[in-house]
Amino acid sequence: MLIIFALLFSFALLVLSVVFGVYIGFALLASFVVFALIAVKNGKSVYDIGHFAINGAKKGLQVVLTMLLIGVLTASWMASGTVGTLVHYLLRVISPEMFLLFCFLIPLAVSFVLGSAFATCSTVGVILIVLANTGGVSAAMAAGIILAGAYFGDRASPVSATLNLVSGLTRTNHYKNVGIMLKTSAVPVIIAAAVYFLWSIRCPLSADSIPLSAEIGQAFRLSPLCLLPAALILTLTVCRVKVKYAIAASAACAVALAMAFQGRGALEMLKYMWSGFSLPDSSPLRDIIKGGGLVGQIKNSLVILIACALSELFQKAGMLSGLTRLLSKPCGRFVLFLRSLALGIVTSACGCSQTLAIVMTTELVAPEYLARGLPNEELATDIGLGALIVPAIVPWNVAAFMAVGVLGVTGMGYMKYILFLYLVPIYGVVRFGVMEVRKRRRKLEPRA
Question: Which phi and psi (to 5°) does residue 291 adopt?
Fold first, then answer.
């Protein structure tokens, strides 16, 4: 019972933090203290709690390093003219009336190739956000739609690390799971694309983006050569080079390009990489093409470290083990899916990690699927409709926080537009609900 109250308190604290724009690191830290006290009450020593926190933070260091590299990458891409060149070319290709639809479809396609929502947001996502700012479209709206498209590949790509994790945990054929995820994504993608199409018509790119495109040509030397850093990171990612190495290589390429082609000085580049890129006050693009740098990622990095420490505490202290008794109660297939989905929401909201949500949900529900004689593919399907995608909906979960942070959006305004992410679990509820209704009807039909 104490755990339930703590979960509700933590959840309320995190929601209030997001709603009122308070730095979410404070809420996560308070949540950690509450659960640490419960762990001590349950027999864990202060040394154990400290050990869990340090180990969790260590696991987050790689993520933090990637976030810091992304800050350097964004600033160097802007300084080298890579962002400006991509915006210049995309303004010629993308129909202003269909911009928001492209914000969904382009990340959808790129994420299926890269298998990573984070890599997608940190490459094409940044470009699309700049386009949104250029054309007067709400950055929060564009970010929400970009995030939604980026998680299509994170869920269904053959090279997705998270889907590979699901396949390994459920001991199922990975490529069969790809087919399942694509099949269960079809209806949500179609509905989401239709809605984004309507939103595109209502909120097109402004005609002012055309003269701004000319301003880009005055602020930067534009050339296909400027696309080299973007081409490099895409190539390295497709070749399955570790993300941090791909980002570092692309950033190094962009720095060299900025100095050799755009005429930036070494000290100037160091300043950009530290505090972020900016144009002179006289430039019309000053408030549009800006940002990146190490400083801007420090707060985000602290949130990730605290979230990882909290995740480790949950896992090592067995905070959710009491749910096993609830899950073992007899139920039908529809209710079993609902329990899996609910557990995915709890682990996503309180564990703050997509990996933790997938691992803990799978480990807790797998015995019940086995006891009911259900094939492992059914378990993989339910995880794909729940714990795999739900973390991207929770704004303080690392899965969402990192991607949105890269896009430079603060607050929770973007959450109104992540329609595809909502539709995937809703599709699961409807799917199993219809199956349950049909099953009951067959039972009530008189036998011939």
Answer: 110, -165
